[in-house]
Amino acid sequence: MELRLWHVTSLEAAVRIKKEGFADSTGSYGFKTIELTGVWFSDRPLDGNEGIRNAEAAFIIKVPKDSIAEYEILDEMQSYREWCIPAELANKHFLDRTIYEPTLEAPWPESSQHIEPRALCIYLERRRLRERRRLRSARS
């Protein structure tokens, strides 16, 4: 059986991931006694309500359920399932490099808009300019 897993990230990180693939990161991620290395995925797109900062873009991978069973993070208090998967394994199944962005009408795919790389670069540049203007006006 194949699972469809989501990796939610910032738009800037999405551009890098699309080009270079997933990269491992290491941290305690709120655990007191363990440190994990890998890439975080979930069975649905997560957002700020689940502690995801900059939930601006997402990737979807499809992986055989038995290949990721050992990487699942079990937490009965969550309404979703999560995995911390080694980047090498995630990249092996990273065949569709579509960047998805939530919209008000459709928070995430099936009907979410797909961002073309050029449009994404324009969007990021406009966002940077807006942020610079905001910071300048805050200083004045």
Quick overview of this protein structure:
This protein has four helices and eight strands.
Structure commentary:
There is one protein chain. The chain is 31% helix and 26% strand. With 140 residues, it is of the alpha+beta class. It has one domain. It has four helices and eight strands. The chain has helices at 11-20, 65-68, 87-92, 117-139; strands spanning 2-9, 25-27, 36-42, 57-64, 72-73, 82-85, 100-101, 113-114. It has a four-stranded antiparallel sheet. A two-stranded antiparallel sheet has the order 1-4.
Domain unit count:
1
The H/E string reads: EHEEEHEEHEEH
**How confident is the prediction overall: mean pLDDT?**
80
Give me the Rg, rounded: 16 Å
The class by helix and strand makeup works out as: alpha+beta
Low-pLDDT residue intervals, each spanning 5 or more residues = 110-117
The total count of helices amounts to 4
3D shape? globular
Percentage beta strand: 25-35%
Helix content: 25-40%
The strands making up the biggest β-sheet line up spatially as 2-3-6-5
Largest sheet: 4 strands, antiparallel
By DSSP, the count of extended strands is 8
Oligomeric grouping of the chains: single chain
Distance N terminus to C terminus?
A: 58 Å
Task: Please give a handful of descriptors for the protein shown.
alpha+beta; four-stranded antiparallel sheet; 4 helices; globular
